[in-house]
Every structure is written in C-alpha cells, then in structure tokens.
Amino acid sequence: MSGLTLQDTPIAGVKRIVRSPRVDTRGSFARLFDLDVLIAAGWPGAIAQVNLSVTRHAGTVRGLHFQLPPHAEAKLVSCIKGRVFDVAVDLRSASPTFGAWHAEELCAEHGTALLIPPGCAHGFQALSDDATLIYCHSAPFAAAAEGGFSVQDPRLAIDWPLPVQGLSPRDAALPALPAAYPGIKA
After folding, report:
1. Which residue is catalytic, options 65, 71, 137, 181?
2. CA-to-CA distance for 58 and 85, rounded, in angstroms?
3. CA dihedral defined by 134, 56, 121, 86, rounded to 10 degrees?
C-alpha cells in the first residue's frame, strides 16, 4: 500500500496528493514519494533534484516560476511545516485550461502535496510563519531555461488569501503574462 491518494484538480495533470500516515503510540510514518504511483499520474521519471524552502513570514509570496523545454520539469511540492497556499498556473499552449490557475492549501498537519506537470508555473504564499516546503523536481535547474510571471498579474487574477508581501527583487520584477503569450509547447 502506497499511502498516497491522488485527486484530480480542474487543471489536467495537476494532482492533489493526500498521504495516509500510519499512526501508533510511537508517532507516525508516511510515504513522501512513490515512483510507481506518481509515474501512473504523469510524473516523468526519476527525481533529479530535491529542494528545501523555508519562508519566515506569513503573507510572503514566491513565484511564479517555470522551466522551458527541453528543461521543463514536473514538481512534487510537500509542506513539512506550517501552511501554504500553493498555486499552479497552466501555461501549456495545447491545454484547454491554458492561463487558468489552481491552488491548494498544503499543510504539514494534513500531509497534503501538489503534483505539478511540466508546462505549469508554480508559486505559493506562506500562510504561517516558518512555512517549510520540500520540492522534488523531475529535471535539474537550468538557469537559461528559467521563466516567470508576476504573482499580481491582473490577467491571471490569483486570489491570494493574504496581502502579497515579501517578494524578492527578482519576483517583483517578473512581467505580466502577455496577452499574446503563445504558451509552452510540450
């Protein structure tokens, strides 16, 4: 038994993952990654990189980031401390939900995660102080393939639960999604 339940979201390929920990008097045990289950859900293969993100203050927003082909990556985002509002934006040119966003509240207490396919941008807002995320990436980071859009883009109209604050200089300078943006071709 994997202990992972995958649930569809309104964006094809973006999956909410619920972990079912085994709990006893000693504590708990939960599976964070199951290659067979995730490949069946669209994960492209092995993990190429794992990153840890700690966001000190509630309200801080990071994103919206993505990698362009041939370095496009799937992400498995898990919250291991605190709570975040985790957002995926569909940038795939052939997708019927191109330009749409979906968010899930991820929290350590509930063991939820978000599986984000290649061609989607990712960002999040910390809903608690010291929110901590682990990201599994299907491809290594390639600086030349990095892209991003503004978290306050009126075209995307992401409904952040708290006032946006704490943007890095890089994220604050990201452009809005252009009206004629062709999308990412897989």
Report:
1. 65
2. 10
3. 80
On whether the pTM is more than 0.90, the answer is yes
For 10, residues 6+ apart whose C-beta sits below 8 A from its C-beta are 97, 100, 102
Domains and CATH numbers, the chain: 4-21+33-167 (2.60.120.10)
Helix (H) or strand (E) holding 106, with range, is: strand 101-107
Among residues 137, 15, 79, 120, the alpha carbon closest in space to that of 4 is found at 15
CB 111 within 8 A of CB 30: yes
Judge whether 181 counts as a catalytic residue: no
Query: What does the pLDDT profile of the chain (186 residues) look like in tens digits?
Result: 458 899 999 999 999 999 888 889 998 888 888 889 899 999 998 899 999 999 999 999 999 999 999 999 999 999 999 999 999 999 999 999 999 999 999 998 888 999 999 999 999 999 999 999 999 999 999 999 999 999 999 999 999 999 999 999 999 999 999 999 999 997
Let me know: does 21 contact 32? Beta carbons within 8 Å. Answer: no
Catalytic residue among 71, 110, 122, 135: 135
Alpha-carbon distance values, 135 to 39, 78, 123, 156 (Å): 16, 6, 12, 24
